[in-house]
Structure formats: structure tokens, C-alpha cells
From TrEMBL:
Record InterPro entries: L-PG_synthase/AglD
Topology class, membrane: Multi-pass membrane protein
Protein keywords: Cell membrane, Membrane, Transmembrane, Transmembrane helix
Transmembrane segments: 12-39, 135-155, 208-226, 238-259
Signal sequence residues: none
Pfam families from the UniProt entry: LPG_synthase_TM (PF03706)
Name this protein carries in UniProt: HpnL family protein
Organism this protein belongs to: Acetobacter peroxydans
Domain of life (superkingdom): Bacteria
């Protein structure tokens, strides 16, 4: 928000009116629901509401806080472990750290799988619109790198157990034996969960398909926003713009909030599709606006629930503390 400028975001919101902005935010909430379904498809044993909440916290941390996507994932893992009154699993048990880490890794992987299909579809739409576009070759190369990267990531998750054990053993060799054993047990548990998740190919395929629907939904939001701004953009054009923009943003995943990357991509692609620079910038600012209007309340609610959880845990520990028995000296005094 500080980088984009509050005045610029507010001006973009006023340009489409509060009714239009509310409609865009509601559409984003629907897409968030689809993303929750995608995660639940891969891990049906964890409650849908639990995964939806953790996903929204993860996205909010990555977009509203000065974190990269990696930092957002760390926050997402914590949110997946937290109960906060929801039933984390069907049996009501708490989600442990290794299982939460596994769930986030698999969800991010299936999201990238859906993104690869979305980017290829975007390239096809871009070629139909403008065969000589300078974006086609770089985006195709980027999609190829994404496919190679996700393939290696999947292989590592499925067959990297021995590597993780040796690496973890080398790191924890000189620490206390209890910590060493706990870390090794946690790594083994996480590897078991990863292998179990990837041994359910239909669940993985359903998750990737839901993510593809979510990506198409984001293109639909772009089309709706462009319509509110008075730009002439077909849905196929919106798929091309959103897909290529997402591919460019993926290459800059270490940049917190994709600051500058998103704006530059929208401006360049807007020019290719005949969109005025002010409208293209408005598309980017309205995207940040809906991320902020959803993300800030999500983060505040999560922090409040975290504080309540810590207080409850503290009271439970005090109540469970053993009462000291009277000593012989106390008895003699009595």
C-alpha cells in the first residue's frame, strides 16, 4: 500500500464506484473458496474451513506484509497448525507441524501445475490476438522452466527422503540428542505424509484442476474490472493478460508483494492490447486494493485468534501444574 500510494488505490476504487469494487471483492472471495476446494481435494482428511482459512492467511501474509511468497508459506504453515475453534481434521485432532508443512508444499505444487496449464492457455490466446507479440517466446520459455521446476519439486517430495534425512542429520549432529531425535522424527513423519499424498494421483489431479479453475476465475475478475474501467477487453484477452502477468510475477517470486513487477507487467501488456496506461495501472491498483481489503481483516482476525489460543494454553498449563505437597517442616509447624 505504501509503495503504490493510498491515494492512487483510492482513486482507482472511486473510478469504478463502491458498487463495482464490492462486486470485484465478492468475486475474489468466490475464487478463494475455489482455492480452498483445491487444497481440500488433495487433503480431504483435513477440514475444508481449516484449509480455506489457512490459505487466506498465507495469501494475506504474502501480499499485505513485507514477505516474499516463501515468507507467506511459513505463515501459512503456522495457520494450518492452529486450531482456533475449527475442526482441523475429520477426527478432530490437531494438525501437527510435519503434516502442515507437507500440506502447504503439496498445495503450492498443485497450484503451480494449474498455473502452467493456465500460462500455456494464455500464450495461445496471446498468439491468436497478436502473432508477433514479443511476450510469446519469453513466456513460453518461462512456462518450460516452470514445468521443469515443478517436475523436479515433485520428484524431490516423492523420492528425497534419504537426502532430507542425511542433510538433517548433518545439521543436527552436534545439538542435544533429544532435539536431534525430535527433528529426525519430524522429518521422517513429513516424508511419510508427502509419500502418502503423492500416492493419491486422482486427488492431486483434482487439486490441480481446481487450481486451474481458480486461475481462470482470476482472469474473469480482470475482465470484470476492465469492464468497470471502460476498457474493451474480451475474456480471451483477459486470460492472455492475466496468464502472462502471473508468469512474469512467478519469475520475481522473491520480491515482496511483487512490488513493481505486477505494475510493469500490466502496463506492458495493456499497451499490447490497446489499453490506456491509466487503465492498465488502474487494473493493477484495484488488484492490490482487493488484496488489501480482504487480507488486512484476515491477518487481524488470525492474530486475535492466536492471542486467544496462547492465553488459553497458558491457563491450561497453570491449571495442570501440580500443587506442591506440604513438607515435614510445614507439618511440624501445623
Amino acid at each position: 500500500m505504501a509503495w503504490s500510494g493510498f491515494d492512487s488505490v483510492l482513486h482507482a476504487v472511486l473510478r469504478i464506484g463502491m458498487g463495482g469494487f464490492v462486486a470485484v471483492v465478492c468475486c475474489q472471495l468466490v475464487v478463494n473458496g475455489v482455492l480452498g476446494l483445491a487444497w481440500h481435494a488433495a487433503f480431504p482428511e483435513i477440514g475444508y474451513l481449516k484449509l480455506l482459512g489457512a490459505r487466506m492467511v498465507r495469501d494475506a501474509a504474502a501480499t499485505c506484509l513485507p514477505f516474499s511468497q516463501v515468507g507467506g508459506m511459513v505463515v501459512g504453515i503456522r495457520a494450518t497448525c492452529s486450531g482456533h475453534g475449527l475442526h482441523p481434521t475429520r477426527s478432530g485432532r490437531q494438525v501437527e507441524l510435519p503434516e502442515a508443512t507437507c500440506a502447504n508444499l503439496v498445495d503450492i505444487t498443485t497450484e503451480v501445475m494449474g498455473q502452467v496449464a493456465f500460462v500455456l492457455l494464455a500464450v495461445a490466446c496471446l498468439v491468436v490476438h497478436q502473432r508477433s507479440s514479443p511476450f510469446v517466446l519469453p513466456v513460453v520459455i518461462g512456462a518450460a522452466f516452470l514445468m521443469v521446476g515443478v517436475s523436479g519439486f515433485i520428484w524431490t517430495q516423492r523420492h528425497g527422503g534419504n537426502i532430507f534425512r542425511r542433510f538433517g542429520g548433518a545439521i543436527t549432529r552436534n545439538i542435544a540428542s533429544q532435539w536431534h531425535d525430535n527433528l529426525q522424527a519430524g522429518a521422517d513423519h513429513m516424508q511419510e505424509r508427502l509419500e502418502a499424498a503423492w500416492n493419491r494421483p486422482w486427488h492431486i489431479a483434482r487439486s490441480a484442476a481446481y487450481h486451474l479453475v481458480g486461475w481462470l476465475g482470476s482472469a474473469g475478475i480482470l475482465w470484470l474490472t476492465a469492464h468497470f474501467l471502460g476498457a474493451s477487453l474480451t475474456f480471451a484477452d483477459a486470460v492472455a493478460v492475466e496468464g502472462v502477468t502471473c508468469a512474469i510475477m512467478s519469475m520475481g517470486f522473491l520480491v515482496p508483494g511483487s512490488l513493481g513487477v505486477q505494475e510493469g507487467a500490466y502496463m506492458a501488456l495493456g499497451h499490447a492490447f490497446g489499453i490506456e496506461p491509466s487503465v492498465a495501472l488502474g487494473l493493477s491498483l484495484l488488484r492490490r486494493g482487493r488484496e488489501i481489503i480482504i487480507g488486512i481483516p484476515v491477518l487481524l482476525a488470525w492474530q486475535i485468534m492466536e492471542m486467544r489460543s496462547l492465553r488459553t494454553a497458558g491457563r491450561t498449563e497453570k491449571a495442570a501444574a501440580p500443587v506442591a505437597s506440604p513438607t515435614m517442616e510445614d507439618k511440624s509447624i501445623g
